[in-house]
Amino acid sequence: MKGTKQSKPGNAGETHQTATGREQRITTNHGVPVSDNQNSLRAGSRGPSLLEDFVLREKIQHFDHERIPERIVHARGSAAHGFFELTDSLEEFTRARILTEVGAKTEVFTRFSTVAGGAGSVDTPRDVRGFAVKFYTKEGNWDLVGNNIPVFFIQDAIKFPDLIHAVKMEADRGYPQAASAHDTFWDFVSLMPEATHMIMWAMSDRAIPRSYRMMEGFGVNTFRLLNDRDEATFVKFHWRPKLGTQSTCWDEAVKIAGADPDYHRRDLYEAIAAGDFPEWEFGVQLLSQKDADALPFDILDATKLIPEELVPVRMVGRMLLNRNPENFFAETEQAAFLPTNMPPGIDVSEDPLLQGRLFSYQDTQLSRLGTVNFHQIPINRAKGCPFQNLQRDGQMQTQVFAGRANYEPNSLNEADEESGPREDPRGGFRTFAKDLDGAKVRLRAESFADHYSHARLFFRSQTEIEQAHIASALAFELSKVALEHVRVRMLSNLRNVDETLAKRVAHALGMPLPTASQPALAPQDMEASPALRIIGKYPQTLEGRTIGILVTDGADGEMINALKTAVEAEGGKIKIVAPRIGGVSLKKGGKLKADGQLAGSPSVIFDAVALVLSEEGCSDLLDDAAALDFTKDAFGHLKAIGFSPQARPLLEKAGVFVDAGIVALSDDPTAVVEAARTRQWDREARIRSLA
Ligand code: HDE
């Protein structure tokens, strides 16, 4: 039998030493050592493979089954480990120890996600973002499964499958992926006026975040806190990012999708790996039943928010994410978040959206993770408080429960046998004893009938720039809707939100303004809530921001160094972009390594840029579309641009005109730092026609 043995270089010995010095050899799943991981067993060196080869079969069979169904919503996500620390006790309102033990640190696992796209879709579509936190508390897991938008599209869980069917790729054609700009989504929401408030948020810059680290989080639904005396207080949960809430520009988000589909995933992973741990403050809005009754809307209706100006957000804790998962599948993919995971002292409200969620999340894990024992997967296991009950068996049971005590009550202890755990009437989870009466009905409460006041409140609370972005996003999305009657219906609804908004969108679409639709309840004007804005609120800092420096051969190394020092001193990062990945030769000699090659590192992936070019280098770049796009896009996306004097011709060819964000580096290479702390909002009206 002729043939040679194919083996991997460096793997010639019988065993392999790992980095930690442990001797390791490959085995089958059942522990049998494998002698050859390169060649399958075959009849002769060129003959067919043999069924007998259990090593090959096991390996391929495992591979064939390595995927599990992706989440039906929120399929694409990224997560990190960290901790939660309470800074202010809520003892008066709750007996949940996680909210009463000031200074105690509780492990968390937090997953951020998009909603509509599949697991392999891009990170930057216009979409809501999931913000799910699993707290491993001493009294069992608490999953606060929220979003980056405090309200929702629908009031009743029974409409959720319709909403998701409508937004996901259309049933016959299988597209568009991860996009709401299509017929079926707008058909559905235009027929569901209750969605209008959420539409305002989804069309705002909140739906195109700059980073997972720069998003607010909200529990959305109203929950209850229960104290020792079982007295209830309504609560809304909030997360506030330390870096402020920041967004991309729409054109930028679209281009990032091509330049780096993993933009948010990479950003989170790299920040944590570099020790820039993202942090959020944790806050609560607390309301008694009396407070709730005094509000002009129903707090059980998830399409409404409670303006902070009416009920302030009390900051009581913080969350720091400081460890990346070691295995994406085992941790991020297998994490199962359930709104029903609540420690004693936290309880649900009668919000009909939340009520449906209480069923769905537990249920969906059965098809996703395949077993009722998904709570035994390490990422889902209660850590602060090991679970013990009398549930037994089931697929993938990993625990070996000893003894006969799998039922209760029992008196096995009287025979000196293990008798198993017992209920805890005082310390265990208790439900708020809400008085209920009334007939069984399928009715939407009258207090849910106002569909436009909060949409109006949100729109009118925005800055002018943010209003223009909402109007433009509506015009963009509706322009992708081929069914004209859907566009008309949406415009009719918008007239109930704000007359000028409807006019602007109609004008941008080139359509006449239709008559307003008839609202179930006439919208009310509410006091504007500046807290709902983003612009003007985030901290002016380079923390979390990256400056891309485009360099060529002959670039001024001292200028680059001075800029680098200034940026890093403020907590920012720089990345060197060069025409070739090998880097460039500097003016005074020496090489500068590149972090990215120009064509693969467009300016959309940076927060600000600098062009540090030599005269010859600049002249070469004048005919390079990548260099022109780098410059033009940085300008178009309202970014600061620092430049060496030799870079002027490139700026001119790219159509850049001078404003506060265009900064010469010749006198002071650090001069661009101030402008790089934010976007140049004032530039926008001069370069883009917004609706
Ligand atoms: Fe979810 N949602 N949802 N949702 N949701 C899921 O559960 C559902 C809603 C949210 O990172 C699913 O484990 C219903 C609101 C997040 O793993 C599923 C309704 C909010 C995540 C499900 C809602 C959310 C999910 C799919 C209407 C903000 C990702 C996979 C009644 C408060 C969690 C899974 C993660 C995931 C059902 C509405 C947030 C199908 C029925 C409102 C962040 O069970």
From TrEMBL:
Keyword line: Heme, Hydrogen peroxide, Iron, Metal-binding, Oxidoreductase, Peroxidase
Q: Which GO terms describe its molecular function?
A: catalase activity
Bilayer-crossing residues are none
EC number(s) given by UniProt: 1.11.1.6
Biased composition range(s): Polar residues: 1-42
Q: Which cofactor does it need?
A: heme
Q: Which SUPFAM superfamilies match?
A: Class I glutamine amidotransferase-like (SSF52317), Heme-dependent catalase-like (SSF56634)
Q: Where is this region: Disordered?
A: 1-45, 408-428
Q: Which reaction does it catalyse?
A: 2 H2O2 = O2 + 2 H2O
Q: Which Pfam family, any one of them, does this sequence belong to?
A: Catalase-rel
Q: Report which superkingdom the organism of origin falls in.
A: Bacteria
Extent of Basic and acidic residues compositional bias: 419-428
Q: Which residues form the Catalase core domain?
A: 27-416
Q: What does this protein do?
A: Decomposes hydrogen peroxide into water and oxygen; serves to protect cells from the toxic effects of hydrogen peroxide.
Homology family: Belongs to the catalase family. HPII subfamily.
Its protein name is Catalase
Species = Bosea rubneri
The taxonomy runs: Bacteria, Pseudomonadati, Pseudomonadota, Alphaproteobacteria, Hyphomicrobiales
